[in-house]
User: Fold this.
Amino acid sequence: MKGQNKLFIAIIIALLLGVGIGGIVHVSYPDSAEPFSKNIKLLGTVFIRLVQMIIAPLVFTTLVVGIAKMSDIKMIGRVGTKAMLWFISASLISLFIGLILVNWLEPGHVTKLPIQDVASADELLKSSKSFSMEDFVKHMIPKSLFEAFATNEVLQIVVFAVMFGVALANLGEEYAKPVVKLFDIIAHAILKMVGYIMWFAPLGVLGAIAAVVAINGFEIFKVYAIYLRDFFFAIGVLWLVLLLVGYFILGNRLFDLLKRIKEPLLIAFSTTSSEAVFPKLVEELEKFGCNSRVVSFILPLGYSFNLDGSMMYMTFASIFIAQIYGIEMTLGQQITMLLVLMLTSKGIAGVPRASLVIIVATCSMFGIPPEGIALILPIDHFCDMGRSMTNVLGNTLATTAVSKWEGQLTEPLDKI
Assistant:
C-alpha cells in the first residue's frame, strides 16, 4: 500500500475514533466534557501550528522563485490576468449558488432554533465594527515583511513576494540566479518537511473532532438538521458545477487529480483549515504535472482571492439569518448584498473566522440584526468543514486550469 493511501486510511480511522471518543465523553462523562475538550483539542492545535510554521516561508520562496523564473513580465501579467478572471468568475458563481438555494430551500423559515446567548458572538461583533477601507489597505500592504511573516499574513507576503520576484526577474541572470537557486533549495527543503508533518495529521483530526463532539454531542445535529441538510446540499451543487467545469478543461485527467488531492481534501474537512493543506497541495499539483512556476504563483493568490466554499456560505448564512428574523429582502437588495460580499471578502483573507466577521458586517449594513450570528455559531464548525474542503477544491482547479491554458500542464511526474 502506498504511503499516501496509508495516511488517508489513518485519517479516516482517526475521524471515526474522534466521533466515538467525543460521543462517549459527552454521554457518560458530561461534567468532564469541557476540560477533556480543552486538552484533546491540543492535538489539533499542534498539527495546525506545525503547518502554519512552514506556510509563510513556503509561500514566499515558491512565489519569488516562480515569478523570477518566468523572467518575462508579459507572461506574469498574462498568468495573473487569467487567474483573476477565474477567481472573480468562481466567486460570483459561488455567491449566486448560495443566494439561489437559500431562497429556494428557505431553511430560516422552517428551522426551529433555540434562543442563543448573544454574548457568544461578542468577539465577532467587535471585529466587524472596525472593518473599513483603511483596514482593507492595511491588511493588504505590509508595514514590515517580518511582521507579515510573524503573523502569517499570507496576502501581505504575496504582495511583497510578487514585487520582489518581479524585481529579481528584471535584474538579469547574473545577479538573480544565485538568489533564485537559494530560494528554490529552501522551498524544496520545506516541501520535504511537509512529508514529516502530514503524518501528524491523524492525531490532529482526532483531537479536533473529539473536542467538538464532546461539547455538543449528537443532539446538535437534530436541532440544526434542516440548516445542515440545506447547506451541504448547496455545497454539493457547487461541487457539481466546479467538477463539470474542471472536466470540461481537464477531461479524464480530472479523476487522476481528485485521487491525488483526496488526502488534502480530507484533512481540510477534518481540521476545518484549508491553510493546513497548502504545502501538501503544492507538492501534489507539481506531481500532477502543473508547472511549478504557475503553482507557486497561482496557489498563494488563490488562498487570498479564491475561497469558493466561504463565498457560498456567506450569502447562504446572511439570508438565513434574515429569514429567521422574518426580514424580507427584495431581489435588488440581495444582488447588492452579493456584490458587497464579493468586494469585502477579498479584504480580510486570512483573518481567523473571516467568513463570520464578513457576515456580521454585511448583516449590519442591510438592517439584519448582527446578533443573529449567535444562532449559527454552535454549528459553524461543521459548516466550516464543508467550506474548507470546497476552498481546497476551488484552488486546485484554478491552478490546474491556468496551467492548461498556458500550455504548461505536462504528464504526471509519477504514477499513482
